[in-house]
Specification:
With about 260 residues, the chain is of the alpha/beta class. It is built from twelve helices and eight strands. Helix 8 crosses helix 9. Bound molecules: 2-phosphoglycolic acid.
Protein backbone atom coordinates (compact mmCIF):
# COMPACT_ATOMS: atom_id res chain seq x y z
CA UNK A 1 0.00 0.00 0.00
CA UNK A 2 1.38 3.41 -0.90
CA UNK A 3 0.98 5.80 1.97
CA UNK A 4 0.25 9.48 1.81
CA UNK A 5 2.63 10.02 4.73
CA UNK A 6 5.56 8.23 6.40
CA UNK A 7 4.32 5.65 8.89
CA UNK A 8 5.31 6.33 12.51
CA UNK A 9 5.50 3.70 15.23
CA UNK A 10 6.27 5.24 18.60
CA UNK A 11 6.89 3.23 21.74
CA UNK A 12 5.86 4.82 25.03
CA UNK A 13 7.73 2.85 27.65
CA UNK A 14 5.99 4.80 30.44
CA UNK A 15 7.66 4.34 33.87
CA UNK A 16 9.48 1.16 32.89
CA UNK A 17 13.21 0.43 32.49
CA UNK A 18 15.85 2.45 34.30
CA UNK A 19 19.14 3.10 32.45
CA UNK A 20 20.54 -0.43 32.85
CA UNK A 21 17.40 -2.27 31.74
CA UNK A 22 16.72 0.28 29.02
CA UNK A 23 20.15 -0.22 27.50
CA UNK A 24 19.77 -3.96 27.67
CA UNK A 25 16.33 -3.89 26.02
CA UNK A 26 17.28 -1.51 23.25
CA UNK A 27 20.39 -3.54 22.44
CA UNK A 28 18.12 -6.55 22.12
CA UNK A 29 15.51 -5.04 19.80
CA UNK A 30 17.60 -2.61 17.76
CA UNK A 31 19.31 -5.10 15.41
CA UNK A 32 15.93 -6.65 14.64
CA UNK A 33 14.25 -3.31 14.07
CA UNK A 34 17.17 -2.23 11.91
CA UNK A 35 16.85 -5.38 9.86
CA UNK A 36 13.11 -4.88 9.42
CA UNK A 37 13.47 -1.22 8.47
CA UNK A 38 16.49 -1.53 6.21
CA UNK A 39 16.42 -5.16 5.16
CA UNK A 40 13.45 -4.37 2.97
CA UNK A 41 15.07 -1.18 1.74
CA UNK A 42 12.07 0.60 3.22
CA UNK A 43 12.51 4.04 4.61
CA UNK A 44 8.79 4.75 4.72
CA UNK A 45 8.57 3.99 8.42
CA UNK A 46 9.88 6.02 11.31
CA UNK A 47 10.34 4.37 14.68
CA UNK A 48 10.43 6.53 17.84
CA UNK A 49 11.52 5.07 21.18
CA UNK A 50 10.35 6.97 24.27
CA UNK A 51 12.01 5.69 27.46
CA UNK A 52 11.75 7.40 30.86
CA UNK A 53 13.79 10.62 31.04
CA UNK A 54 16.42 9.07 33.30
CA UNK A 55 17.10 6.41 30.65
CA UNK A 56 17.29 8.70 27.61
CA UNK A 57 21.05 9.01 27.66
CA UNK A 58 21.58 5.25 28.00
CA UNK A 59 19.36 4.61 24.97
CA UNK A 60 20.99 7.48 23.08
CA UNK A 61 24.42 5.88 23.43
CA UNK A 62 23.09 2.68 21.85
CA UNK A 63 21.30 4.54 19.03
CA UNK A 64 24.49 6.47 18.33
CA UNK A 65 26.18 3.21 17.36
CA UNK A 66 23.88 2.98 14.31
CA UNK A 67 25.17 4.17 10.96
CA UNK A 68 24.15 7.80 10.36
CA UNK A 69 21.74 6.85 7.56
CA UNK A 70 19.75 4.64 9.95
CA UNK A 71 19.61 7.25 12.67
CA UNK A 72 17.16 9.23 10.55
CA UNK A 73 14.61 6.47 10.92
CA UNK A 74 14.99 5.49 14.55
CA UNK A 75 14.45 8.47 16.78
CA UNK A 76 14.55 9.04 20.49
CA UNK A 77 11.65 10.76 22.23
CA UNK A 78 10.89 11.93 25.76
CA UNK A 79 7.57 11.31 27.52
CA UNK A 80 7.13 14.83 28.83
CA UNK A 81 8.84 18.22 29.26
CA UNK A 82 8.16 21.66 30.67
CA UNK A 83 7.55 24.68 28.46
CA UNK A 84 9.83 27.19 30.23
CA UNK A 85 13.41 27.72 29.03
CA UNK A 86 15.11 27.41 32.43
CA UNK A 87 14.95 28.57 36.01
CA UNK A 88 13.37 27.69 39.34
CA UNK A 89 11.13 24.80 38.29
CA UNK A 90 12.33 21.98 40.52
CA UNK A 91 12.06 18.57 38.95
CA UNK A 92 11.23 19.84 35.47
CA UNK A 93 13.17 19.44 32.20
CA UNK A 94 13.33 22.15 29.54
CA UNK A 95 12.80 21.74 25.79
CA UNK A 96 16.48 22.58 25.10
CA UNK A 97 17.61 19.88 27.55
CA UNK A 98 15.35 17.32 25.86
CA UNK A 99 16.64 18.44 22.47
CA UNK A 100 20.21 17.60 23.45
CA UNK A 101 19.26 13.92 23.34
CA UNK A 102 15.93 13.65 21.55
CA UNK A 103 14.10 14.71 18.43
CA UNK A 104 10.56 14.07 19.69
CA UNK A 105 8.46 14.41 22.83
CA UNK A 106 5.11 12.94 23.88
CA UNK A 107 2.84 15.64 25.30
CA UNK A 108 -0.52 15.56 27.07
CA UNK A 109 -0.68 11.81 27.52
CA UNK A 110 -3.91 10.92 29.33
CA UNK A 111 -1.89 9.67 32.31
CA UNK A 112 -0.30 13.12 32.61
CA UNK A 113 -3.71 14.72 32.36
CA UNK A 114 -5.21 12.29 34.89
CA UNK A 115 -2.47 12.11 37.53
CA UNK A 116 -0.62 15.40 37.06
CA UNK A 117 -3.43 17.79 36.16
CA UNK A 118 -2.27 18.71 32.65
CA UNK A 119 -4.79 20.80 30.78
CA UNK A 120 -5.23 21.51 27.07
CA UNK A 121 -3.75 24.96 27.65
CA UNK A 122 -0.59 23.54 29.23
CA UNK A 123 -0.28 20.99 26.44
CA UNK A 124 -0.56 23.81 23.89
CA UNK A 125 2.23 25.77 25.61
CA UNK A 126 4.43 22.69 25.73
CA UNK A 127 3.78 21.86 22.09
CA UNK A 128 4.66 25.41 21.00
CA UNK A 129 7.87 25.27 23.05
CA UNK A 130 8.73 21.88 21.57
CA UNK A 131 8.29 23.18 18.02
CA UNK A 132 10.37 26.25 18.78
CA UNK A 133 13.20 23.99 19.93
CA UNK A 134 13.12 21.71 16.91
CA UNK A 135 11.33 18.85 18.65
CA UNK A 136 8.54 16.84 17.07
CA UNK A 137 5.61 16.93 19.51
CA UNK A 138 3.40 13.84 19.73
CA UNK A 139 0.25 15.37 21.16
CA UNK A 140 -2.17 12.95 22.81
CA UNK A 141 -5.92 13.42 22.83
CA UNK A 142 -8.84 11.10 23.47
CA UNK A 143 -12.13 10.67 25.25
CA UNK A 144 -12.75 8.71 28.44
CA UNK A 145 -15.14 5.79 28.88
CA UNK A 146 -18.00 7.92 30.14
CA UNK A 147 -17.70 10.39 27.28
CA UNK A 148 -17.42 7.51 24.84
CA UNK A 149 -20.58 5.89 26.14
CA UNK A 150 -22.43 9.20 26.12
CA UNK A 151 -21.59 9.68 22.43
CA UNK A 152 -19.46 12.76 23.20
CA UNK A 153 -16.28 11.62 21.43
CA UNK A 154 -16.45 14.10 18.58
CA UNK A 155 -17.18 17.02 20.88
CA UNK A 156 -14.30 16.13 23.24
CA UNK A 157 -11.88 15.67 20.35
CA UNK A 158 -12.91 18.98 18.79
CA UNK A 159 -12.30 20.82 22.03
CA UNK A 160 -8.91 19.15 22.53
CA UNK A 161 -7.77 19.77 18.96
CA UNK A 162 -8.88 23.40 19.02
CA UNK A 163 -7.21 24.09 22.35
CA UNK A 164 -4.06 21.94 22.13
CA UNK A 165 -3.19 22.50 18.49
CA UNK A 166 -3.86 26.21 18.04
CA UNK A 167 -1.52 29.09 17.18
CA UNK A 168 1.45 27.00 16.13
CA UNK A 169 4.28 28.61 14.13
CA UNK A 170 3.28 27.98 10.50
CA UNK A 171 6.78 26.98 9.38
CA UNK A 172 6.88 24.06 11.84
CA UNK A 173 3.41 22.65 11.26
CA UNK A 174 4.68 19.70 9.26
CA UNK A 175 6.37 18.28 12.39
CA UNK A 176 3.23 17.78 14.43
CA UNK A 177 2.02 14.33 15.32
CA UNK A 178 -1.37 13.76 16.96
CA UNK A 179 -2.03 10.53 18.80
CA UNK A 180 -5.69 9.66 19.17
CA UNK A 181 -5.82 7.52 22.29
CA UNK A 182 -9.27 6.72 23.65
CA UNK A 183 -8.60 6.45 27.39
CA UNK A 184 -10.78 3.35 27.77
CA UNK A 185 -8.55 1.53 25.27
CA UNK A 186 -5.24 2.31 27.01
CA UNK A 187 -3.75 -0.68 28.78
CA UNK A 188 -7.13 -2.42 28.78
CA UNK A 189 -6.51 -4.96 26.04
CA UNK A 190 -9.71 -3.56 24.54
CA UNK A 191 -8.57 -1.62 21.47
CA UNK A 192 -10.93 0.63 19.54
CA UNK A 193 -12.22 -0.75 16.28
CA UNK A 194 -10.23 0.32 13.24
CA UNK A 195 -13.38 1.88 11.86
CA UNK A 196 -14.06 3.86 15.05
CA UNK A 197 -10.45 5.07 15.32
CA UNK A 198 -10.37 5.82 11.59
CA UNK A 199 -13.50 7.95 11.82
CA UNK A 200 -11.98 10.00 14.64
CA UNK A 201 -8.70 10.36 12.73
CA UNK A 202 -10.63 11.59 9.72
CA UNK A 203 -12.50 14.09 11.92
CA UNK A 204 -9.19 15.35 13.38
CA UNK A 205 -7.78 15.91 9.89
CA UNK A 206 -10.96 17.72 8.88
CA UNK A 207 -10.77 19.98 11.94
CA UNK A 208 -7.15 20.72 11.15
CA UNK A 209 -8.16 21.66 7.61
CA UNK A 210 -10.53 24.29 8.97
CA UNK A 211 -7.98 25.57 11.52
CA UNK A 212 -5.07 25.79 9.06
CA UNK A 213 -5.33 24.66 5.43
CA UNK A 214 -5.51 21.67 3.12
CA UNK A 215 -1.76 21.27 2.73
CA UNK A 216 -1.10 21.34 6.47
CA UNK A 217 -3.96 18.92 7.13
CA UNK A 218 -2.63 16.49 4.53
CA UNK A 219 0.83 16.58 6.12
CA UNK A 220 -0.46 15.94 9.67
CA UNK A 221 0.54 12.57 11.11
CA UNK A 222 -2.25 10.95 13.10
CA UNK A 223 -1.47 7.89 15.22
CA UNK A 224 -3.84 5.56 16.98
CA UNK A 225 -2.98 4.43 20.52
CA UNK A 226 -4.67 2.01 22.91
CA UNK A 227 -3.89 -1.72 23.22
CA UNK A 228 -2.03 -1.90 19.90
CA UNK A 229 -0.26 -5.20 19.27
CA UNK A 230 1.32 -6.96 16.31
CA UNK A 231 -2.03 -8.73 15.92
CA UNK A 232 -4.19 -5.66 15.35
CA UNK A 233 -1.77 -3.06 13.94
CA UNK A 234 -2.60 -3.84 10.33
CA UNK A 235 -6.29 -3.17 10.82
CA UNK A 236 -5.48 0.36 11.98
CA UNK A 237 -2.85 0.96 9.30
CA UNK A 238 -5.38 0.05 6.62
CA UNK A 239 -7.30 3.27 7.33
CA UNK A 240 -6.06 6.12 5.10
CA UNK A 241 -6.16 8.68 7.94
CA UNK A 242 -4.19 6.57 10.43
CA UNK A 243 -0.44 6.95 9.92
CA UNK A 244 0.87 4.75 12.69
CA UNK A 245 0.58 3.94 16.37
CA UNK A 246 1.60 5.05 19.82
CA UNK A 247 2.28 1.79 21.57
CA UNK A 248 2.40 1.40 25.37
CA UNK A 249 2.43 -2.10 26.87
CA UNK A 250 3.65 -3.85 23.73
CA UNK A 251 6.53 -1.39 23.29
CA UNK A 252 8.51 -2.93 26.16
CA UNK A 253 8.21 -6.42 24.75
CA UNK A 254 9.56 -8.24 21.74
CA UNK A 255 6.11 -7.71 20.18
CA UNK A 256 7.24 -4.16 19.35
CA UNK A 257 9.48 -5.59 16.65
CA UNK A 258 6.47 -7.54 15.35
CA UNK A 259 4.45 -4.32 15.16
CA UNK A 260 7.18 -2.55 13.18
CA UNK A 261 7.58 -5.61 10.94
CA UNK A 262 3.88 -5.72 10.14
CA UNK A 263 3.85 -2.04 9.24
CA UNK A 264 6.89 -2.28 6.99
CA UNK A 265 6.05 -5.50 5.19
P1 LIG B 1 -1.20 0.69 25.61
O1 LIG B 1 -0.82 2.21 25.93
O2 LIG B 1 -0.63 0.35 24.26
O3 LIG B 1 -0.59 -0.10 26.73
O4 LIG B 1 -2.69 0.61 25.60
C1 LIG B 1 -0.87 3.19 24.94
C2 LIG B 1 -0.42 4.51 25.52
O5 LIG B 1 -0.70 4.78 26.69
O6 LIG B 1 0.22 5.31 24.83
Amino acid sequence: MTRARTAIIAGNWKMNFGPTEAKHFVKEILPEIGQVLYGSGSTQTLCILCPPTISLEAVRTVLDTLPASQQNYIELGAQNMYFEEKGAFTGEISPAMIHELCSAVILGHSERRMYFGETNEVVNKKAKAALQHGLRPIICIGENQEQHEAGQTEQVIREQVQNCLCNFPVERLQDIVVAYEPIWAIGSGKAATAEGAGNVAQAIRQLYRTMYNEEVANALHILYGGSVTSENINEFMAHPDIDGALVGGASIKADFVGIVRNVVV
